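Morning run. Coffee first, then this:
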Amino acid sequence: MFRFRLADVRFDMVRHGQLPRADWPEGARMTGIAAGGEAPLQPVAENEGRRRAAGIYGAIITAAILDTAGGRLSTGALAVAVVGTLLVYWIAEEYAEALGEQAAGGRLPSRASIRAALVSTWPMVTSSFVPLLAVVLASVAGASLLTAANVGLVVAVVVLTLHGWLAGRAAQLQGRKLLVATSVAAVLGLVMILLKDLVLLHLH
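And here it is:
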């Protein structure tokens, strides 16, 4: 019970700028201790925010790879390229965060905190699954490699737009603000398509 109250007090101090994030003790990033457990949990809002950000990031990377490699690789090779790249980005980002943000006082973050961080950013990888499924289905239906990749690219843009909309809703945006937040995500995906046309059709 004491650990629970101390963590809440220190978390409030961090939110109000009274205590730097690097000074958090191990396990301070929690909303409480589960009954019978000792593993610290991140605040729910922060965890959900990281999941949404990871999903947006993963959708952008997926669209970029489909954009540049589509039509040049077989369906299987394209899927491996997308998932493999996202796995590297996923692990590299958490490695950088572990050393750059969580490591303090000569100590590395605990296994529990590293595992929680990896779980919270896993949507970076899973955001590619639906676009890749679309690529596979298009290929099975007889589409060419380029057409199948373009189908996946369009689906990736839709996924990216959906992530942007969900992030806006989670931030309690409404009306024009929600529309702007969603539109920015959609524009990022459309830029991928325009860049593909520019590079392949005019500069290649």
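The longest helix spans residues 175-203. Good start to the day.
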